[in-house]
Amino acid sequence: MRSTASVITWLILFSGGFALASVLYARRVLGGLEDYVIARNSQNTLATMATLLASTLGGWILFSPAQAAAWGGIGAVLGYAIGAMSPRLAMIPLGKRMREVMPAGHSLTEFIMARYGRGMYGLTLAIMLFYLFIALSAEITAIAKLVTLIAPVPLWQTAAIVMAATLIYTSYGGLRASIFTDKVQVLVILPLLGVLFYFGWKAAGGVMPTIDALRVSAPQMLSFTDPVGIKAGLTFFVAILLTGLFHQGAWQRIYASRDAGTVRNGFLFGGLMVMPFIFIMGLFGLAFKALVPNGDSSVAVFALIMPHIPDWFAFALIPLGLALVMSTADSAISAVSSLIAIDMGRLLPNATSEKMMQLSRSLIVLLAIPVMIVAAQGYSVLYLFLLADLLCSAAAFPVFYGLFSKHHNGWRAVVGTAFGLVAGLLLFPAPGEKPVYLLESFLVATFVPVAVILLMQAFAGKTAKVFEFSTLAAAVRKLDR
């Protein structure tokens, strides 16, 4: 174990350094509330790719892919890697269409309010906020647990330091600060992950010791056709794909991209670059299962490398963990902050943009309190993550079908989502139960709304009211007023 005081010192220095650089940048470029929320048309392809890569590669990659591999083998690793990439690719046609119908838009909730009305708007807003809260709690928990593996630092101290530093620059500079810091953090993440892969390779002794050991103890983990692995991989793919479509941070970056071509190229390359990192991190789980078969798979990466790394790299894990966590946490904070500014404006129509920015900053600080409380407990938030995934799966078709179909409406969207939720929850495992029908719960939650909505549309026939997409552009509220 390393000195607690030295680890806390480095934690403060690195997190403070990220925060200071971002605040200094934001002071030079930040405009009004509109710029704070969306930074419209300001990012080129390289910047879009970098911010997507950094905000996707969160602290969870140090834990979850390896744990998934220890559960479902190579099939789970592949499904996880493709799943992590897939939301970025799916956002290309969805983002292009959103920019066409609402060129001055700000958020997914803004589209839902204009397209479907208050019922679907309220339901989707609740789902998005729940998902963002869980994602933020998971990231802060990840860095707190990582630091305890380096030195006996109390979880709450790490959570408080990292959350405070992230709040400072994100609440001050909004999306521009988040994107700038992502670009800095990706320069930290990529080389340090490369070093981590090197030490993992050395610890495992290369590929063959893992393959030889698994061929004897668990040959099914090496098979791409193993039913358990296929099911696990499909579960991760469906869950991650549909949940990623509801992250407000991704929709902010759709509008922050310079044009439709930037959206296409930035999201394409940002998504493709994620896949190999997740796949390699998953392979740590296979090596762990081969070499430490009775260990705790939730810390598989560190159980494998910690006995073999020098002290300098143990301390280097601090900036790596911080860069991974803060790049994802600031995206979640900026996303929630933007939703507050946009959606609270409906309740306070006469408030000035300065007042809304102040309110957004204040409420996001209040949100940080329960996040730090959850992170300080060291809970596994996997179950809540899966629940959020189920909610997003049920809402996916009802929400995005209306981007293309003029016959879809708010009533059908609410009914379809409700049927999907009920069907999915009937199969969803209770807390503590084995996830026997987890994939089935996601599939029925996803496809039951499709069947319900298309049936309702067929029975309505030609008498149904047709939606005019041209009205969406006029429904956008100006934030700077």
Task: Tell me briefly what this model is.
The chain is mostly helical and 481 residues long.
Secondary structure blueprint with pairings:
Layout: H1 4-29, H2 33-37, H3 45-56, H4 64-101, H5 108-116, H6 118-150, H7 155-204, H8 208-217, H9 227-244, H10 248-256, H11 260-291, H12 300-305, H13 311-347, H14 353-377, H15 382-400, H16 410-427, H17 438-460
Helix pairs in contact: 1-7, 1-13, 3-7, 3-11, 3-13, 4-9, 4-10, 4-11, 5-6, 6-7, 6-13, 6-14, 6-15, 7-11, 7-13, 7-14, 8-11, 9-15, 9-17, 13-14, 15-16, 15-17, 16-17
Descriptive notes:
- With 481 residues, the chain is an all-alpha fold.
- It has one domain (4-380): Sodium/glucose cotransporter (Up-down Bundle), CATH 1.20.1730.10.
- It is built from 17 helices and no strands.
- Helix 4 packs parallel to helix 9 (227-244), helix 6 packs across helix 14 (353-377) and helix 8 crosses helix 11 (260-291).
- The mean pLDDT is 89.
Instruction: Work out the helicity level.
Output: over 70%
| End-to-end C-alpha gap | 55 Å
Find the CATH topology.
Sodium/glucose cotransporter
Described by strand count, sense and barrel closure, the largest sheet is: none
Number of strands: 0
Essential attributes:
481 residues; mainly alpha; Sodium/glucose cotransporter; 17 helices
